[in-house]
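Predicting holo structure, adenosine-5'-diphosphate bound.
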Amino acid sequence: MQNIKLDTSVQYIKGVGPKMFELLNKLGIYTVKDLLEYYPRTYEDRTKVTSISDFQKDSNVLFFGRLVKPVSVVYARGKKIISTVVTDESGSLAFLTWFNQIYIKDRLKEGMTYLFYGKVSSVSPTRATLESCSIYDVEQLDKIQGLYPIYSLTAGITQNYLFKIINEIMDQELLLNEIFNDEFRKKYYLPEINYAVRNVHFPKSYEMVNMARKRIIFEELFLFQLALMNMKDNNLVSTKTNVYNDLDCSEFLKIIPFELTNAQKKVVEQIKGDLKSNIVMNRLVQGDVGSGKTMVAAIAMYLAVKNGYQASLMAPTTILANQHYLELSNYFGKLGINVDIITSSTTKKQKEKIIERLKNNEIDILIGTHSIIEDNIEFNNLGLVVTDEQHRFGVKQRMKLSAKGNVVDTLVMTATPIPRSLAIILYGDLDLSVIDELPPGRKTVETYVVNDSYNQRVYNFLKKHIDEGRQVYVVCPLVEENEDLDLNSVEKLYEEYKKEFAGYNVEILHGKMKNKEKDEIMKRFKENKTNILISTTVIEVGISVPNATVMVIENADRFGLAALHQLRGRVGRGSAASYCILKSNNKSAIARERLDIMRKSNDGFLIAKKDLELRGPGDFFGIRQSGMPEFKLANLLTDTKVLEQTQQAVKEIVTKDKHLELEENRSIKEALFLKYGEQLRNIVG
Ligand code: ADP
Ligand code: MG
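Done. Tokens:
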């Protein structure tokens, strides 16, 4: 095997035929680089040779054994049982068995010593027993001893096979390009990259694994943060000319039907601080479902208008945009502030009118979906933009909205609770406000986990609540990526409920409906003309109907916990006791554990944290939507130490060489574009 390169297909590696190639593809391994980066899931400790006299039940042991009798084969219950007895210097005996591996009869000779690795299944005063040990020649000790990598597999591929083919490419030298210079590596205690990769696969000790893993994690996080920094750089405006002379919002506070919570007041103060400073506001407001983020946004918009600017609020769905419009135009109308709405259901004619009025400054606040960021929507004097449920939008969309004004203050609202340290990294330039208190009188939503055998009881429960005047949501998950199939499953559910709830008003709502139709359905639900609303996750974000107190979630195990929490937040919005019934027939331990977290906790922060632990970061932060990749080794939640270091390192490099033009940073720049080039172009434009 000559001249192997990173992009060489693994087909050309010794031991990879067409069939294995296909299996490797299943693991996402196509090229040599993929294989190198197919890091072990964990390791088996084979660092010590254990003497047979020291064997403990259930421990894994590497040991020498001399056969004291020939290998015997017996047939029992349709199996071939191969066995022998070995001893070592301690004089103790070990009884070894294998099943159906008939070749072992020729592999092992009486009187010879071999190296074995396996799990001790029992220990008695006379002998230890081990099943299905791996067998090596004594001379192989050097290669075997250490930590043995355990990879995630697929049927047809064994640990040994991966071990062998990765070994095969490891014998090649300097495959990977080292992007950090010596000085840099010394500073952050980073080993050379090829050395690190070798030691992640075949380490001799845990110390070495840790050092090697850190090296790879460091590079992943470093490039990630550098990419983020680059994207944001585009948006960085440090000083502004917007002047806020009047920060008195008492007139507005008189109109709303409740008193702000202390947490809301605190965040409003923070926003005022931003508005009167000469630095552009870039603030992330994080608050659990129902904490009252809309009101905080409304106050900020009120202040913008009061100081002569237009404001805009962008929401991820038409339903939510409509809801905001209804609530806010009610308040603002009383103060003579003009609010309008634009969504995909706005007609061409209405749109033209909105465009005209926006330019003439006849609209003070424009609410809408991403229709707002269409090119032909121009403001007269946009001063503040608010993005609601920001995890639904990408960085690019957020920036596009800001670009509609000269120098625009930005407020983004999210219910996705992420640790502060992470928020700063992901959103970097954003300041963070937390609404860590719910309005008074909220009851926690009582949550149950049930399977289909409870159907009748669930129906009775719903009837009881409807008969008391309450309303019910039934939510159906996305079953497939295929919208038609999803539609199918809500419709099926709808039929079932209609049958069971004859005499009640049952309605269906899903993403494929026309906006107008959706609006009408939501309107009827709000007016309590509908008893049960069967829906897909279109109601997930933001919807608020206080009289709806029961939610049933079908196939709850298919949702992420953060999504379940969002959904559940649709009930418990009034002062009445509220219930969430999570239905699932999934018996797996992990599914049960996840649903149990929901049952026990109403705390979005805790739920998010647990979810992250169980699932890994993935699309949790909506990172995927904004074009962020997953990491091979790094974990944003647990690798906080390395994150701090890389943040520091990125800052240092960027301060010295903002556009990575120095020769010493060339490799870094290349690696950055290799990995993030597409996203960078995408976002930077
Ligand atoms: P979220 O933070 O999930 O977006 P909302 O802004 O939709 O929450 O607020 C949830 C509900 O609580 C709304 O009906 C809103 O009118 C109400 N609300 C907001 N602030 C308060 C408050 N201080 N006291 C009582 N109710 C409030
Ligand atoms: Mg909201």
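Residues 258, 260-261, 264, 287, 289-295, 415, 439, 542, 544, 573 surround adenosine-5'-diphosphate (ligand 1) (CB under 6 Å).
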